[in-house]
Inverse folding.
């Protein structure tokens, strides 16, 4: 798409002939009138695969918009956090097996930044949820005791994505599914953001361990 | 210029060798220094005229000048030439390095120097650019003590890391040039 930067008369707003001028996040846009496409042909195999990928990733990120707002805050000056998360993950988010496209859960990221991760992260399955633990120390660089931890869990069978927050110094968070998730396929991620929500860490995928003894 | 061309194909110019080399150098330098921002903001502050962002820029410039070797596409950072702090304060002499499973200990001595004060504080930094994690000594340690210890974050307990040592005055106005302790493997 071409970029229209302060033309002879500057950006405009509203409809001029068949062109509509508008502005979003300080970016001036010129849009054409909406065209109704009749007799839409069936997508080719490649197009269908592309549609499937877009549907999968968009649906996955849908419930946690506010969390993505914090995780990708540094990159949202000219895009929404969901769009940033989508493009950040798109290249590595899918696994293709026997013609079936599924999400590559361990590779998904919910944040980007240089705040330090905690280390020694563990996710322990309990009868009705997941207990996430991490090392609460900060070692003098790249993190503070009052950083907020965002623990995210996804149950594949329930198709439920949940997020719980805790302070870094708490060292643990519990994500409750309010239903038995005994043998469900669960995926757990953890990232940190500073108390002002300005900086975030990378996302760590935490492999699940068995029920606590 | 071709008279007939495919309108749907974007006209992308191939980047020159020099441009690609510079871009790779910048990428390497940023990846190495970025996790150390909180430390560099203090140690290079004098060179950034009190501005943290300028301080980081100066540290980056120094790294680009001194600590990158090789030709594109095989350029790499030489960690022992990286200066995570800079200044005129005399450094210390390392006597012994004792790596442990959860901590790194260093014994050092200091020569007599009109600029060196017994109350100068010594800082030890353990850093892994691959993990993007660093740790520094939690307890204040002075030049006269001759011993410093840093607890290793869990990410560094099972992975190799670089260690740097530097000295600053008690009021944090003056710094020494950082000393590369070595590449410590578990």
């Amino acid at each position: 798409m071409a970029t229209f930067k302060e033309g002879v008369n500057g950006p405009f707003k509203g409809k001029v002939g068949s062109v509509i001028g508008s502005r979003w996040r300080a970016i001036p846009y010129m849009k054409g009138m909406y065209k109704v496409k009749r007799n839409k042909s069936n997508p080719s195999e490649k197009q269908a695969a592309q549609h499937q990928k877009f549907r999968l990733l968009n649906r996955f990120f849908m419930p946690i918009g506010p969390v993505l707002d914090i995780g990708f805050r540094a990159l949202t000056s000219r895009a929404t956090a969901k769009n940033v998360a989508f493009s950040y993950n798109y290249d590595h988010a899918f696994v293709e097996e026997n013609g079936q496209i599924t999400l590559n859960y361990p590779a998904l990221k919910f944040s980007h930044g240089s705040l330090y991760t905690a280390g020694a992260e563990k996710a322990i399955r309990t009868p009705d949820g997941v207990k996430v633990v991490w090392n609460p120390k900060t070692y003098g660089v790249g993190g503070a005791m009052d950083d907020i931890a965002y623990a995210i869990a996804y149950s594949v069978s329930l198709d439920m994505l949940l997020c719980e927050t805790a302070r870094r110094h708490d060292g643990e968070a519990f994500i409750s599914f309010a239903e038995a998730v005994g043998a469900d396929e669960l995926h757990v991620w953890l990232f940190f953001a500073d108390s002002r929500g300005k900086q975030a860490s990378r996302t760590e995928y935490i492999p699940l361990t068995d029920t606590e003894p | 210029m071709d008279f007939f061309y495919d309108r749907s194909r974007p006209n992308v110019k191939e980047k020159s060798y020099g441009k690609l080399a510079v871009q790779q150098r910048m990428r390497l330098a940023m990846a190495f220094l970025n996790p150390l921002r909180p430390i560099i903001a203090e140690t290079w502050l004098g060179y950034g005229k009190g501005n943290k962002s300028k301080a980081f820029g100066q540290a980056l410039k120094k790294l680009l000048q001194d600590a990158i070797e090789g030709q594109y596409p095989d350029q790499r950072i030489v960690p022992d030439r990286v200066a995570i702090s800079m200044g005129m304060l005399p450094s210390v002499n390392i006597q012994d390095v004792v790596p442990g499973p959860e901590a790194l200990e260093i014994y050092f001595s200091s020569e007599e120097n009109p600029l060196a004060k017994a109350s100068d504080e010594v800082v030890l930094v353990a850093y892994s650019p691959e993990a993007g994690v660093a740790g520094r000594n939690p307890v204040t340690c002075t030049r006269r003590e001759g011993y410093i210890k840093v607890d290793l974050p869990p990410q560094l307990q099972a992975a190799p890391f670089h260690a740097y040592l530097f000295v600053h005055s008690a009021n944090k106005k003056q710094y020494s040039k950082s000393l590369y302790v070595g590449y410590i493997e578990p």
Summary: Residues 50 and 148 of chain B are 29 Å apart (CA to CA). Strands of chain B lie at 68-69, 76-77, 93-99, 103-109, 121-128, 133-136, 141-142, 147-151, 161-168, 179-184. Chain B touches chain A at residues 34-39, 125, 132-138, 150-151, 153-155 (CB under 8 Å).
